[in-house]
Amino acid sequence: MTTTPAGYVNSDMLIETQWLAERLQRRDIRIVDMGSREAYLRAHIQGALHPGAAEKANYIKDPDEPKYVMPKEKFEALMSSLGIGNESLVIAYDADGGHNAARLWWAMSYYGRPNCKLLNGGWNKWVLEKRPVSLDVPSYPRTTFTAIERPALIAYVDDIEKAIAAKEPLLLDVRSDAEWNGTETRGNKRSGRIPGAVHVEWKNFVTSDAQRTFKPASELQQILWQAGVTPNKKVTTYCQAGVRASHTAFVLKLLGYDEVAVYDASFSEWGNLDETPIEKDGKITTGKKQKPAAKKSPRGTALKPARKAKKPARKATAQPKKVAKPAKAKRSKATPARRKKPKK
User: Fold this and answer.
1) What are the tens digits of pLDDT across the range 27-70?
2) Are residues 254 and 179 in the same domain?
3) Does residue 223 lie in a domain region?
4) Staple partner for 105: which of 110, 116, 228, 257, CB 3.0–4.6 Å?
5) Closest CA to 35 of 144, 111, 133
């Protein structure tokens, strides 16, 4: 397979536009447009499919529990309906530097079929080069797609809690600066970052020109190494919903990092749980109200609060008895359920 000369360890994960243009008629290739449905219907690469009409279908999330990746049976059904089988070569693209395309790559990898490649530069580069586009919505014969889960590629909330305690794997936050420092909430109950995480926004991995291609390996390595993200470390990426995190996981694998997982529910889960620690403005807090710590004496023992002086006793006078009002039932706020890693 033709590869890029940019020095990537796993360069076959990226496909160049010229390579695809020469193979548009191959029957074993399925091209998938991972942009919005609306943009897809306006125009797309000739022969390209789209994952569905549902809102955010390109996130490959469970319609019933949208924080999490589409479950095995639903993913198998989706792939089969698109004519994607176990041996199909899938080329994913979008118009945003591979942002959503990498989500399909990660989902296929997680379900044991890593034969998904990204089109470098995607729709932007394809159109700038005046390559064939279409309005037709193709259909392919239904086939059989069999998913085989690879648990090492996904992280759950309990994995992140263990990572904080053990300081491994390295947690890589790929959100914007505003999300990282907590000034942008994205609708979460709490904002900030996971304690101990390092930060590199995902946009740093693609060029800022019109084509939005992946930067050469040397530039990517420098960006990551400056943040302490080196190939000898286990890395778990996170963002708001696991999509940008999937893009960064793709970049890490492209560079040859061995152990990379995605915290799929990411901050849409972490920032809405009460018990999870969050770092913001130099402080680490949880959502629960904390009891004030007892002041310590110079010798290290807690100081007892001073007793108030007793007031002189008053002469008792008869008081009318008060009728106790029935206590009001307290309403408890529902806390989002947390999904833990399934036991083997």
Assistant:
1) 999 999 999 999 999 999 999 999 999 889 999 999 999 999 99
2) yes
3) yes
4) 116
5) 133
At 195, list the tokens.
């304690």
Residues forming a β-bridge with 206:
214
What tokens appear for 234 in the block? 């286990």
Tell me the C-alpha distance between 140 and 148, whole Å. 23
129-175 per-position pLDDT tens digit: 999 999 999 999 999 999 999 999 999 999 999 999 999 999 999 99
Residue given tokens 């920032």 in the structure block? 271
Residue that terminates a domain, selected from 254, 285, 316: 285
Q: What tokens were used for 115?
A: 């034969």
Q: Which of 136, 57, 141, 138 is nearest to 94 (CA)?
A: 57
- Measured in degrees and rounded to the nearest 5, phi and psi for residue 158 equal -70, -30
Report which of 299, 20, 339 is spatially closest to residue 158, judged by C-alpha positions.
Answer: 339
Q: Exposed, middle or buried: residue 133 (CB in 10 Å: 0-12, 13-18, 19+)?
A: middle
Q: Clarify whether 239 is annotated catalytic.
A: yes
Q: What pLDDT score does 339 carry?
A: 72
Residue 340 lies in a domain: no
Among 105, 51, 67, smallest CA distance to 260 is for 105
Q: Among residues 153, 239, 252, 260, which one is catalytic?
A: 239
Residue that finishes a domain, picked among 149, 175, 196: 149
The amino acid at 32: V
Residue 79: how many other CB atoms lie within 10 Å? 28
Place of tokens 């005046």: 130
Segment 168-214, tens digit of pLDDT: 999 999 999 999 999 999 999 999 999 999 999 999 999 999 999 99
Q: Which helix (H) or strand (E) holds 110?
A: helix 101-110
With CA atoms as reference, report the closest residue to 150 among 102, 108, 87: 108
Length, in residues, of the chain: 344
Residue 69 to residue 75: CA distance in whole angstroms: 9
Binning pLDDT at 50, 70 and 90, where does residue 288 land? low
